[in-house]
Amino acid sequence: MSAKNRPEEEPLLAREPVGVPPLLQPLLAVHSAPTQGWLVDGAATAAERGLGALYSLVFLLDSSGSLAGERPASSERMRAVAKLSQLLETNVASLKFDPQQVPAALSALEKGHAVAVEELHEALLLPQAEKKLRAVQKQLGVAEVWLAPLHWSGESTGLVVLFMPADAPAPLAHAELLGQHVAVALAKLRAQEAGRKRGELDAVRWIYDEQRFEDQLYKEVRRALRHKRPLSILLIRLDNYHDLRARYGRFLAERLLRQVAGVLEDTMRDTDFLGAFKDNGFAAILIEADGEAAQRANARLSRGLSNVTLPHAQLPDLHLDLTCATATVPDDGETPQDLASAAEGRLAPPETTQEQVA
Fold first, then answer.
1. Which of 232, 288, 302, 344 has the most beta carbons within 10 angstroms of its beta carbon?
2. 246 exposed, middle or buried (CB, 10 Å; 0-12, 13-18, 19+)?
3. Which is higher by pLDDT, 162 or 203?
4. Position with higher pLDDT, 114 vs 355
5. The 55-61 sheet, strands edge to edge
């Protein structure tokens, strides 16, 4: 049967579809997933709790252009996949097929829009005959199969395949929204893994780690002294990070750190350098910045942080308690250690001085 494509319309993330709230909470697990396996688990949780799916599978495009099944991480999800594999008489977690042979899948990938089909053989390339697949579909209680592309920034990187009941509480558009969120989370995971392989990226904040920052600061201090040019560093500490972690949980608190890092990267000049500072802060190298320029940078970055929020996390009382301090070459010393010591000395203890950014 022919695929039923959703008509062209504005990007889903640019608006708030009516009825989305049930999907919001499980989407947090998608963005906080530490590995691709846990991302599959998060997508399955969001598909079931937010969309009412009976089962869900994640397929990623590999280098050959084939869709390859991605294994979940938890034993609970693996049992669900094993049950589905037994009924379909194939290991769906390792299933691999060419989307060119499945028109609905190809349409979803190329157009970036979710597609609904009425029969299993229209969604997946499975070895069973169509008649047998219809019997399995009836046994599972599946009325439709939804194909949601992992589509973001004009590119599709895979599909979420959802087995939907007749009384699905959510529209097809919400499946497309789920696919977009999985695509964004997948892109971040891949960037994070690339940084880990280089040994330069902080695993939580997804910016340069402390060692890489120290190496860069050593180079910049030498360059500033050689050319007799000013150089400053700025330390930013999130004083209530551990309180936020205790209140909202590790995943949400780490997402908040990543959000702060993203705002800082967007606000800083291209010539500056951002790195991690301890477990709850950030350090910036401000090129060609004397003490006055460093204070201006501090004010600019603080204004940017005043708008930090967590998308889809409805936390109206969320606020950041920040402390910032600067140090400058040559006023505060002529070595990286001098600068770091001077700036850290100016970071007042959290219990005495805090800059609150609502």
1. 232
2. exposed
3. 162
4. 114
5. 4-5, 115-117, 144-152, 155-164, 55-61, 67-69, 96-97
d(CA 276, CA 261): 9
Q: Give residue 313's pLDDT.
A: 54
In tens, the pLDDT along 119-158 reads: 999 999 998 899 999 999 999 999 999 999 999 888 999 9
CATH 3.30.450.40 residue ranges in the chain?
Answer: 4-196
Q: Helix, strand or coil for residue 320? A: strand
Mean pLDDT of the chain: 86
CATH architecture of 4-196: 2-Layer Sandwich (3.30)
Which CATH architecture group holds 199-357? 2-Layer Sandwich (3.30)
pLDDT at 22: 67
Q: Is the dihedral of CA 5, 9, 13, 19 positive or negative?
A: negative
State how far the Cα of 260 lies from the Cα of 176, in Å rounded to an integer. 27
Write the pLDDT tens digit of every residue in 291-344: 999 999 999 888 888 777 665 555 666 778 889 999 999 999 999 999 999 999
Query: Cα–Cα distances in Å, from 186 out to 81, 106, 134, 167, 192?
Result: 21, 20, 33, 30, 10
Instruction: Select from 130, 160, 129, 128 the least CA-distant residue to 145.
Output: 160
- Of all residues in the chain, what percent are helix, strand and coil, respectively (each to 5)? 45, 20, 35
3, amino acid identity: A
The radius of gyration of the chain from alpha carbons, rounded to an integer in Å, stands at 24
Task: Quote the longest CA-to-CA distance of the chain.
Answer: 80
